[in-house]
Amino acid sequence: MPAILGTGEHRYRVVENFAKLPDGWQLTDVASVAVDSKDQIYVFNRGAHPMVVLDREGNFLRSFGEGLFSRAHGLHIDADDNLYCTDDGDHTVRKCTTDGKVLLTIGIPEKPAPFMSGDPFHRCTHTALSPKGEIYVSDGYGNARVHKFTPDGKLLKSWGEPGTDPGQFNIVHNIATDADGWVYVADRENHRVQVFNGEGKYETQWNNLHRPCALCCCGGAKSPTFVIGELGPGMAVNRKVPNLGPRLSIVDAKGKRIARLGGEEGPGVASGKFLAPHGIALDSKGDIYVGEVGVTDWKTSFPDEEMPAAVRAARCLQKLERVRE
């Protein structure tokens, strides 16, 4: 029987072997996912075919991005089905059509800003849009900043610096916005999501999270909810401690937890377990798609175990189907 995660109204059935790829293809790490207006699933991954497009049943539709992307990291899709692809390998954000035509590039490919300089970009991680179409970029591994750009890519402002105080970041890993223009930032190694207004003014933070990595705003304009992908322990000393993830948490607009999916007994490849949730998207039916970087994270979680071939082949993308009966 397929595993069921969650309780009450937030119950999800794990769809086994969701992605049906052409013979010989592998996704390897799936850094991020997005869903368009037709419920097509865009799978931004670190395999030979960086953008793989599937339908809701997991059937392969097309691919693109071969030779274009260096290292997939973040993916966001707007109301017009434009894709914003964040590549932390060559320090760029590319706005693309759904067939891969590049409409805009922000950043200079293979030209990172100096480490922790605050200038865009040094291993940028993700994007989100304001209600006016302005582009927020989390930046990321070699910076501790959020940048705000005009819709055509001109820098408006930046905020953030390294540290643990409000408005400071320790790996600014993901970013999301809501219909009112609030900006939500996954401050991963500070174990929190920080909330800002559209101009970068700190408002509040959500705690009681463990290495929040993926961040998805959903649930509609009037009552937004958020699905947060949390990584498990990253240190040997707490590697086997229970109740630290990896897992998904669903919270309301105040950060109050509504539901939690998985993570009680640590990472794994069994049905109902996660490896390293890194990107999350929902379709029109409320089903959740989870991209995981299980290949990269394997030695962190299982340093003494050989990685199963299935992890590289198929285990870095999961579909959780909402139980509706």
From TrEMBL:
Origin: domain of life: Bacteria
The UniProt record lists the keyword ATP-binding: no
Repeat positions for NHL: 128-152, 160-199
The UniProt record lists the keyword Signal: yes
UniProt protein name: NHL repeat-containing protein
Taxonomic source organism: Bradyrhizobium zhanjiangense
Pfam short name (any one): NHL
Keyword entries, A-Z: Glycoprotein, Repeat, Signal
UniProt cross-references to InterPro entries, sorted A to Z: 6-blade_b-propeller_TolB-like, NHL_repeat
SUPFAM superfamilies: NHL repeat
